[in-house]
Amino acid sequence: MQRLWVGRNIDLALLSERIENFFKDKRFKTRKDWSAPECVISAKPRHGVGILGRVIVRVLGNSNDFVIELSASDHSRSAVKLGFITSMFGGGSLVLRGLKSQEELEKLEKDFWIYMEEAVTHLINSTT
């Protein structure tokens, strides 16, 4: 999923720090790669988070007009599919883990977009 902000005039470096902080607060390990005009933040869940696979956030554009794109790996869906295939051999736990992971990803995504709206608003207000 992605969202576009137009005419905001904020420091994207500060925004990328806010994104990293969001994931660190949620117990993810992050890595940031910055090469203009794009910043990519990779967030890997630590043990016990309940999410399978990485979450990738891309910030594209310039300080005035930018896009934030959030995507997750397909590990959750793969676990569900593999669990169904192997259910006769005890794969039911994979189905459960995959479904729980998908549920946690949905919660994370909802929280992320709320946090981004607040972060962008705060960064706009701090520059004026």
Provide an overview of this structure:
- The protein has one domain (2-127): TATA-Binding Protein.
- The model has no long low-confidence stretch (mean pLDDT 82).
- The chain has a 5-stranded antiparallel sheet, with helices on one face.
- It starts with a strand and ends with a helix.
- A hairpin with a 4-residue loop joins strand 4 and strand 5.
- It has helices at 12-25, 75-85, 92-127, and strands at 2-5, 28-35, 38-45, 55-61, 66-72.
- The chain is elongated.
- The longest helix has 36 residues, at 92-127.
- With 128 residues, the protein is an alpha+beta fold.
In short:
The protein is of the alpha+beta class. It has helices at 12-25, 75-85, 92-127; strands at 2-5, 28-35, 38-45, 55-61, 66-72.
Beta fraction:
25-35%
Broad CATH class = Alpha Beta
Count the beta strands.
Answer: 5
Low-confidence stretches: none
Give the helix proportion (percent range): 40-55%
How many separate domains make up the residues?
1
Morphology call: elongated
Q: Write the CATH fold name.
A: TATA-Binding Protein
Rounded to the nearest angstrom, the distance between the terminal CA atoms is: 29 Å
Give the name of the CATH architecture. Answer: 2-Layer Sandwich
Order of helices and strands: EHEEEEHH
DSSP helical segment count? 3
Q: Output the radius of gyration.
A: 17 Å
Order of strands in the sheet with most strands: 1-5-4-3-2
- Describe the biggest sheet? 5 strands, antiparallel
Average pLDDT: 82
Computed structural class = alpha+beta
